[in-house]
Design goal:
This protein is mainly α and 492 residues long. It is built from 19 helices and two strands. The protein is globular and about 80 Å long.
């Protein structure tokens, strides 16, 4: 079930909302929790009920391990130390994720390296396994630090399965969520939260349906369909994916935050205008913020962080982001994407240590273009797809200009510049080419000049103009539902 679907918006969400608050109104607190957990598991099972035993087994396992860690362990009564139990729990989670997500990748590389011919397992990747695994690893570590006291499996089930953030985050901590569910005020309908939730949900829906899905057509054509690209087409392809990914994922996050607000639950911010960043460190403080927090708290700092000298700091940065790349997908393109970001952070840190500074506009220009180029590897299904786009982006012997310019710039023909059909591999004609150009320019201006959705939410006031704006973008988005359109991060 997708956030951008009729069944979610007009059936699942309102039914879950009204029954949950009805049960709370009748003071049936345990029943309301149980219903919310059941509804969330139903939401999860909508794609494939075969995934259900996996998430249930994972929840039960981590609940038992977390309970063992949260309780006081006395050495004379237990054979294993808390640290041993933590290591066992974390390794078990990683092995589960590794088996489903990376086993075929591992076999492929074994075959390539040794010349063997082991059969691939062709395992179906369980939905959201990367997200709920990381969330539960964080829970185990927090339990080890005695920062959780969760002895009720139903509470834990609500924490793990809460449907707004179950599939693609934000990645939340137990201490962020459970006090909110326990708050007596959360059990009563809050009309301001309902208005805010509908407002931010509608913005996220518009981002996904109107913006991301529009750019998806050009990105898919450039990466997967076109066999050759000229200079303009290559840059249009890369920028289309850069915008598609941001509006797709931030749109999902807005819808998750909006859905949660209906239930009086505030999820953490996950995006803060990342394409306004003026360096790579600034970008990771703005992009997928809860993942950045996880990588920092549970990988970078345990590796030693910046406490053991510059060389070790650089090594830790590289290791953290290569792991981050692997988490996103089983492929060398993801590993290389992680390596690029790790290397960029190392260079930025060294640059800063030397005291060098750039003009703000130049720092932004370099950062944005680095991100745009790195996303090519993130998107490409194969190395050949990435090289096809990158070679066209940086080769000057494939420049094609609009045919209308030929009469004025005939002299450019001597430099192998051609005229006519300058977007023929991406678009179906003049009007679509015009729409592509206008869309890229407009969205770039929006990203740089307008407030982001979280800033708009902070300034939210439930008045007539807000109602008209929300209703308008919601209606336009609903009218654009015309085909199945999965969120990009469902694949990770």
């Amino acid at each position: 079930m997708l956030f951008n679907s009729y069944e979610f918006i007009f059936a699942f969400l309102p039914i879950t909302f009204f029954i949950y608050f009805y049960l709370n109104h009748r003071r049936l607190t345990q029943a309301s929790k149980g219903f919310l957990a059941f509804s969330s598991l139903f939401f999860y099972s909508w794609w494939n009920i075969a995934y259900l035993p996996i998430i249930l087994s994972s929840m039960l396992f981590n609940y038992v391990i977390g309970n063992s860690l949260a309780k006081e362990l006395k050495s004379n009564k237990h054979r294993f130390s808390k640290k041993s139990i933590l290591v066992f729990g974390v390794v078990s989670n990683v092995l589960l994720l590794g088996y489903f997500k990376y086993m075929d990748f591992f076999i492929e590389n074994i075959n390539l390296a040794t010349g063997s011919n082991f059969d691939l397992l062709h395992l179906a990747l369980p939905l959201a396994i990367s997200f709920f695994t990381f969330q539960q690893i964080a829970y185990l570590v927090d339990s080890y630090k005695e920062e959780t006291k969760e002895y009720d499996f139903l509470n834990y089930a609500v924490f793990v399965t809460f449907f707004p953030q179950l599939i693609a985050g934000p990645i939340v901590h137990h201490k962020e969520m459970m006090p909110q569910f326990a708050n007596i005020r959360s059990k009563v309908m809050n009309y301001k939260n309902i208005a805010m939730g509908f407002f931010i949900f509608s913005i996220g829906l518009f981002k996904k349906v109107i913006i991301a899905d529009t750019f998806a057509v050009w990105a898919t054509t450039g990466f997967d369909t076109a066999t050759t690209l000229n200079l303009f087409e290559a840059w249009a392809t890369s920028l289309s994916y850069t915008f598609q990914l941001y509006f797709d994922f931030s749109g999902y996050t807005d819808m998750a935050i909006g859905s949660a607000l209906l239930f009086n639950i505030k999820l953490p911010i996950n995006f803060n205008s990342p394409y306004k960043a003026t360096n790579i460190q600034d970008f990771w403080r703005r992009w997928h913020i809860t993942l950045s927090r996880f990588l920092k708290d549970y990988i970078y700092i345990p590796l030693g962080g910046n406490r053991e000298g510059e060389f070790r700091t650089y090594t830790n940065l590289m290791a953290t982001f290569i792991i981050g790349g692997i988490w996103h997908g089983a492929g060398w393109t993801f590993v290389f994407w992680g390596f690029l970001h790790g290397a960029a952070l190392v260079i930025h840190r060294a640059w800063s240590k030397l005291g060098f500074k750039l003009w703000t506009w130049l720092a932004w220009f370099i950062t944005f273009n680095f991100l745009n180029i790195a996303w090519v590897f993130f998107r490409a299904k194969e190395w050949s797809d990435a090289l096809k786009v990158l070679e066209a982006m940086f080769t000057l012997n494939n420049v094609v200009l609009p045919g209308s310019l030929k009469a004025k710039f005939t002299f450019l023909s001597q430099y192998s510049i051609e005229y006519g059909g300058f977007a023929q591999h991406l678009t179906t004609g003049y009007n679509e080419t015009k729409a592509l150009l206008l869309s890229i320019l407009t969205i770039m201006l929006f990203i740089l000049l307008l407030k982001n959705s979280m800033q708009m939410l902070k300034k939210f006031h439930p008045n007539k103009s807000t109602l008209i704006f929300t209703t308008l973008i919601f209606t336009v988005s609903i009218l654009k539902f015309n085909e199945y359109s999965e969120f990009l991060y469902f694949r990770f």
